[in-house]
Amino acid sequence: MRLKYVLSTALIASTLFSCGEGKKAEKPVKVVEATEVIAENDFNYEVEQFADIKILRYQIPGFDQLSLKQKQLVYYLTQAGLSGRDIMWDQNYRHNLTIRRALENVYANFKGDKNSEDWKKFEVYIKRVWFSNGIHHHYSNDKIQPEFSSDYLKTLLKETNTTLEGEAFDVIFNDKDAKKVNLDAKKGLVKGSAVNFYSPNMTAADVEAFYKAKKSPNADEPLSFGLNSKLVKEDGKVFEKVWKSGGMYGDAIDKIIFWLEKAKGVAENDEQAKAFDLLIKYYQTGDLETWDAYNIAWVNTLGGDVDYINSFIEVYNDPMGYKGSYESIIEIKDFEMSKKMAVLAENAQWFEDNSSIMKEHKKEKVVGVSYKTVNVAGEAGDASPSTPIGVNLPNANWIRAKHGSKSVSLGNIINSYNNAGGSNRLEEFAFTEREVELEKKHGKLADKMHTALHEVIGHASGKINPGVGTPKETMKNYASTLEEARADLVGLYYLPDGKLVELGLSPNAEEVGIAAYDGYIRNGLMTQLIRLNLGDDIEEAHMRNRQLVSLWAYEKGKNDNVIEKVTKDGKTYFVIRDYKKLRDLFGQLLKEIQRIKSEGDFEAAEALVENYGVKVDQDIHKEVLERNKKFKSAPYSGFVNPVLEPVKDADGNITDVKVVQPNGFDSQMLKYAKDYSFLPSKN
């Protein structure tokens, strides 16, 4: 479970990555050695901007403090992560690798006119495809529309001796497979989704029937059926193609295993080595009981300064909620911030006991919640170029209940967002100077606190009633939206609480809470709409969650004027008039969503999401897009990764690892394609 974007907490909708006045990067790129971290004022965070995307850089604080063995561990883990990069591309769409390789060959070899408008449009298109790990937008899930013609692409293909034909060529320009992930059941969750987790001839009913017939050896410890496989139907028979060594994606997985073996050889402790062993075994066999054993070992590995996420993890890209997208994040502990924020995990039981949810839905004992602020050293798959800012794993509810979970906040990623942003959009959509003042004063802290509360307390909170199935079974296509809303609401409920001051985490709970609430409502009802085309429904789970929470609170608080819709100088604002009553409303909604999840109430889940999270007020949307036109900064941001370069002696032994910042987005993407393409174009 994750906070997928820096605005997922929706607290700093006007100061972080999507909301600053854009400025063209002018500082020269500086090579950063492992022993050097450039001061914020001197480091060039911005790489380039195109379409609706801004590319940023991040530093790796603390890397120079690692021992040689730890640096080797980080290097091996980044190589393992990148080795599976092509898996994510193929998971996103069956023609992605074919299309990407053709486009890359054109980009690298075209010798014609590169000043023409058509070529510039081609450059933008391939960069958008790179950013999204495929031809569908990383956030809206809509197919990316090229602004050049099919005839122009045919010319480029001919002049570079590149082959791209048949459906793989046609789909770039036609209206087929228009949505990567479709969450509208009326259009067919599987039939309407282009994502490559199911063969094109399958239906949602086929998927449900197949997995309904699966039984776990222990009903109290349900296996994550479907997490690591593609489900296909051939000659009327439905079966799984498992992602493992010797199976689907086997060539890339063998490379992952190779680097994980090296990582095991430099593990920081026995617990970490044991977890590596189990992860390797899981990749070798595809066995889901081994996957659970690995997650238990991983969550109990708390020593050491280096940690990682690697495998098929989040199910947001599966409309049915079974299939895990390939993901890799390598993390170095932020020693100072982790010490400060660990206090949340230590007090997790207090937050559970004092939550607004019903007593019968509270955990009697919250176990094993660990929280760290970490600095990312490398990302791949579903985490790159667009990255989460917070992650809480494992996702299996029974493991979380019995063994606990790990929560991390990606500190250097958040720092890069903060240093690449501005405040102009905030001033456009905030109603008062006081609102702007508190956002600037407390916004960054509010965001960090909400991330921590969301991940540590939110995802660890609550329990499912005995006999009720897993959320993916009971909540189906609404599971992700409701889980993110539930975690967001936990954070919102506690941000104004004096307990945070008592714990030394907040200097002023009231002001921080006001800044947080203003930002959340402003973003949930207005500013996040800059990411949508006029007329679109909201599809992405985090966006649905934020509108659901904001719109529900607005509607339920109308009689008490909790949130007032105000028009001033022809512009619309949503102004909070009673913060205490709004907190109470957040508590009521948290209670209801936890009830829905605990009791497996699908009808209530469907009504809540469809009524509040999907449809957009078209007049408001049109106004937001018009007001946003003045801002040059792109609404989405992502990252190039620092390059870890091993230094070797005459015998080939690694004696050090350098950190070098890449010059450009395109050069990194081409380098990755050259060094980490281990899969055939069709899998």
Helices, strands, pairings?
Elements: E1 2-3, E2 46-50, E3 53-56, H1 68-83, H2 85-92, H3 96-109, H4 117-132, H5 150-159, H6 167-173, H7 204-212, E4 229-234, E5 237-242, H8 250-265, H9 270-285, H10 288-299, E6 306-312, E7 326-333, H11 335-346, H12 348-353, E8 369-381, E9 390-393, H13 397-403, E10 405-410, H14 411-419, H15 424-429, H16 433-458, H17 471-474, H18 479-494, H19 498-502, H20 509-525, H21 541-556, E11 563-568, E12 571-576, H22 579-599, H23 602-614, H24 618-628, E13 636-639, E14 643-648, E15 654-660, H25 665-675
What can you see in these coordinates?
The chain has 683 residues and is of the alpha+beta class. A six-stranded mixed beta sheet has the order 1-9-10-8-7-6. Strand 4 (229-234) and strand 5 (237-242) form a beta hairpin. The chain has helices spanning 68-83, 85-92, 96-109, 117-132, 150-159, 167-173, 204-212, 250-265, 270-285, 288-299, 335-346, 348-353, 397-403, 411-419, 424-429, 433-458, 471-474, 479-494, 498-502, 509-525, 541-556, 579-599, 602-614, 618-628, 665-675, and strands at 2-3, 46-50, 53-56, 229-234, 237-242, 306-312, 326-333, 369-381, 390-393, 405-410, 563-568, 571-576, 636-639, 643-648, 654-660. Helix 21 (541-556) crosses helix 22. It has a domain at 2-81 and 247-639. It is globular.
Précis, in short:
The chain is α+β, with helices and mostly antiparallel strands and about 675 residues long. The chain has 25 helices and 15 strands. The longest helix has 26 residues, at about 435-460.
